[in-house]
Design a protein that fits this description.
About 40% of the residues lie in helices and about 15% in strands. With about 375 residues, the chain is of the alpha/beta class. It has one domain: Glycosidases (TIM Barrel), CATH 3.20.20.80. It has an eight-stranded parallel β-barrel with strand order 1-2-3-4-5-6-8-9, surrounded by four helices. Helix 12 (about 255-265) links the parallel strand 7 (about 245-250) and strand 8. Helix 1 packs across helix 15 and helix 8 packs parallel to helix 10 (about 190-200). The chain is globular, with a radius of gyration of 20 Å. The two termini are about 40 Å apart. Mean pLDDT is about 95; it is low at about 20-35. The structure holds (3S,4R)-3-hydroxy-2-oxopiperidin-4-yl beta-D-xylopyranoside (XIL). (3S,4R)-3-hydroxy-2-oxopiperidin-4-yl beta-D-xylopyranoside (XIL) binds near residues 80, 169 and 275. (3S,4R)-3-hydroxy-2-oxopiperidin-4-yl beta-D-xylopyranoside binds near residues 81, 169, 244, 275 and 350.
Length: about 375
């Protein structure tokens, strides 16, 4: 049994090697024998799968460096956007399968465990989904049948190819109560059960997950436990809970992470680290970010302090922080199936939001 310190040191060596290597990562040829860097999927082979969320450019050949990184390091793959309701089902009678097909093809060609993200969510879901032909709110029955039709169509198309689905995403409020989303308001609290039921019917072999952010925090964690217990009590298939793991330099604390793993253990579900990134800034949400005036020098200093690169000292802190998180993951490897980064490299991370952030292992180049 390795001690915490040994684990942390091991993780620090591997991750620092990648984080601090700079542009060498992106220009390096995959499979090149002179490559100084081990593949993450090999380093963590005994512990969990390693994945990244990819955008369209990665899988369709527009970003070959990013594709090479994914091919080298990953044995599991998540769709960053193309399988969400809006992109894949933009209008009532129109599906846009092409980008999702290419994503699945890329994963299959590289023999990766493919994750479908996500079937039921309150974001990136068009307005029409919640309205009938007369632009009036849907009835419960009509909404359920629309949801079933969507799940059957999407899951059915990738049956046997997508290994696991984030069936429902972010259904809880910070206090652990069900979020008052249109799904909840139109169908009622069993919308989650119904989504799991339909997904299982559509592909009985696919793994099914509930995915959430900040579910290491008290309140939401308890809500998450209640929800999983309920789904299990109803005899529904649920294989895992996704911990999105959008992290920063302090959050989540070790104690919060430990609490999460301890709470999941008795539930008989696996844990998926589904959207890992580490912001060097404290969290500011999308709406607040949009209001920041980056032309104003003071605002810029405050919200975009490292426009042209991370100072070495912060870079080292980031490496330490990644090592700390990975040492926790390795410690709980018996519960964790996979660790997926939310993106491939800093340039394309969703966390930039108009400024330069450095949340992934691979830098802008
Ligand atoms: C983000 C994508 O990364 C962005 O490209 C998109 O504009 C918005 O959504 N939680 C989730 C992910 O479950 O689907 C989100 O992805 C990030 C937060």
């Amino acid at each position: 049994m390795k001690t915490n310190l040994q684990l942390k040191t091991l993780c620090l060596i591997v991750l620092t090697n990648i984080l601090l290597a700079g542009e060498g990562c992106a220009s390096e040829q995959p499979g090149s024998s002179s490559s100084p860097q081990p593949a993450l999927k090999d380093v963590f082979k005994k512990d969990f799968l390693i994945g990244m969320a990819v955008n369209n450019n990665v899988v369709c050949g527009n970003d070959v460096n990013a594709a090479a990184i994914v091919e080298k390091h990953c044995n599991t793959l998540t769709a960053e956007n193309v399988m969400k309701w809006g992109p894949i089902h933009p209008e009532p009678n129109r599906y846009n399968f092409e980008p999702a097909d290419r994503f699945v093809e890329f994963g299959q060609n590289n023999k990766m465990f493919i994750i479908g993200h996500t079937l039921v969510w309150h974001h990136q879901t068009p307005k029409w989904v919640f309205e009938d032909n007369a632009n009036k709110p849907m009835t419960r029955d009509a909404m359920l049948s629309r949801m079933k039709d969507h799940i059957f169509t999407v899951v059915g198309r990738y049956k046997g190819k997508v290994g696991g689905w984030d069936v429902v995403n972010e259904a809880l409020d910070d206090n652990g109560e069900l979020r008052k989303s249109k799904w909840f308001e139109t169908i009622g609290e069993d919308f989650i059960e119904k989504a799991f039921e339909y997904a299982h019917e559509a592909d009985p072999d696919a793994e099914l997950y509930y995915n959430e952010y900040n579910n290491e925090k008290p309140g939401k964690l308890e809500g998450c436990v209640r929800l999983i217990r309920k789904l299990k009590a109803k005899g529904l298939r649920i294989d895992g809970v996704g911990l999105q793991a959008h992290s920063d330099m302090n959050y989540p604390s070790k104690k919060e992470l430990e609490g999460f793993f301890a709470a999941m253990k008795p539930l008989g579900v696996k844990v998926m680290i589904t959207e890992l990134d580490v912001s060097v800034f404290p969290w500011v949400d999308w709406f607040a970010m949009r209001k920041i005036d980056f032309n104003d020098v003071n605002e810029r200093k405050k919200f975009n302090p490292y426009p042209s690169g991370l100072p070495d000292e912060v870079q080292q802190k980031l490496a330490d922080r990644y090592a700390e998180l990975f040492s926790e993951y390795v410690k709980h490897a018996d519960q964790i199936d996979r660790v997926t980064f939310w993106g491939v490299y800093d340039k394309t991370s969703w966390l930039n939001m108009g400024r330069s952030n450095y949340p992934l292992l691979l830098d802008k180049k």
